[in-house]
Amino acid sequence: MTHDPNCLFCKIVAGQIPSKKAYEDEDVLAFHDIHPWAPVHVLIIPKRHIASMADVTEAEAALLGKMTALGPKLMKELGVTNGFRHVINTGPDGGQEVYHLHLHVMGGPRPWLKG
Ligand code: 5GP
Ligand code: ZN
């Protein structure tokens, strides 16, 4: 399936739901998370519908590589200079809420670590 009409992130890809975009090309879209867990929090998704990491095969290796490598580029562009996290939640026990594969990339100051 390349597009799931019932999928929230497919609707974002199609422009049916607005998002604050950080990057877009023919394969991937990056946009800011609506409920950020960090000062800078972007979601990097494939444009094609893939439900989760549980559905990924070696055929998606290049796509996953592209998504992963986009993280540091975006963090730099968004002014993150002191480190960031890549997170992918998979399935119910992995805390996945939206079943369209997405890579969380989070950066910015972490004041709770001070002291
Ligand atoms: P998950 O728990 O599936 O790994 O993460 C889903 C993420 O999608 C959450 O961090 C949530 O805030 C974000 N999210 C859910 N709905 C929307 C939306 O409509 N727009 C944006 N930009 N982010 C969303
Ligand atoms: Zn989708």
From TrEMBL:
InterPro entries: Histidine_triad_CS (IPR019808), Histidine_triad_HIT (IPR001310), HIT-like (IPR011146), HIT-like_sf (IPR036265). PANTHER family: HISTIDINE TRIAD HIT PROTEIN (PTHR23089). It comes from the Bacteria. It comes from Roseateles saccharophilus. Residues 8-115 form the HIT domain. A motif (Histidine triad motif) lies at residues 100-104. This is Histidine triad (HIT) family protein. Coiled coil: none annotated.
